[in-house]
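One such given next:

>
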Amino acid sequence: MEKSYITEQIDRIIEMAWEDRTPFEAIEIQFGLNESGVRALMKKELRFSSYKRWRRRVESCSTKHARKRNPGISRFKCDRQRAITGNKISKR
């Protein structure tokens, strides 16, 4: 069963997926959407060329998976994250 999201949530998921420092695990914590779900959402919401560009970027980005990250990186928040309303992660 696919979970439905409002437009603002979809926009935030897409933004987080494009951010290099935000791992898929952070998206799953906040929105309950695992990596394959993020891929499906991105494929559905983006133009195909943009989706391909995003996939190439994600495959070469070691920070998108928590287990591949450099141990020196201990957070996955962007500079603007505190200003985003309804962001559960920044309120911890």
The mean pLDDT is 78. The chain has one domain: 7-84. The chain is about 50% helix and 0% strand.
